[in-house]
């Protein structure tokens, strides 16, 4: 039976790399994000193994419509939650409430919303032999908070806790819950969006770091975890570039 997976955040970065990788491994992938032009181009490149759904996971109606359309087309064995963002890097004392709100709406509530809606289908063993998997791409920011990162770190910590508690609550059910927490990953848009399009600020994140992780490195981890037999639940993977001991201990070449 062909395995079908929904990948959120598939229009760029880690989600796009994960989509490509899972298609290469024989999955049918539903690529989900808001930007249709990018999803369409990806699906065209990948051929019949990739379809797409335009969806804003912070919006109830949009997410319900996407989930309805996905399930009408067939069963879903896995959900890979890659949609997410950081906004700003300001101290708690002066951080923008709007930045925090956007991160909570997307990283925490958006991930929760689509996970809740797909959960019954993921656990439907009549349609999915062996059961299903929820995978969340959280972050090492959810493990080790840093100055200026309180809003993002808190939202990523919430995602990690969501994964952990969901796993506890679903014990005995045909569901695996996997949390992958990457450190520094150099993707095209993540830091640029964090700093409101400021290219020099975005570039400074990776300045002098010999080899940050790539989106493909994280996609490898996700594909490996998903490829394990259904009885094997890879609870957590923490993956960083060799040059990064922690967010505040990064080797940089001058
Ligand atoms: N880059 C890093 O250093 C790093 C490290 C650790 C963890 N992470 C986490 O990994 C995930 C992916 O990061 P990335 O570097 O690949 O970032 P990215 O390239 O900016 O990708 C973010 C994705 O989220 C989608 N998205 C944003 N708002 C959305 C919404 N309302 N509804 C649906 N999709 C939405 C975007 O697509 P549209 O704009 O088309 O909707 C995009 O595809 C994020 O959760 C991030 O927190 C990143």
From TrEMBL:
- Signal sequence span per UniProt? none
Q: Where is the Ketoreductase domain?
A: 3-183
Taken from the record, one Pfam family name reads: adh_short
Q: Keyword annotations for this protein?
A: Oxidoreductase
Any one Gene Ontology MF annotation carried by this entry is:
oxidoreductase activity, acting on the CH-OH group of donors, NAD or NADP as acceptor
Q: Which SUPFAM superfamilies match?
A: NAD(P)-binding Rossmann-fold domains
Keyword set includes Oxidoreductase? yes
- Superkingdom is Bacteria
Q: Which family does it belong to?
A: Belongs to the short-chain dehydrogenases/reductases (SDR) family.
List the protein's name: Oxidoreductase
- Give the organism the record lists: Bifidobacterium aemilianum
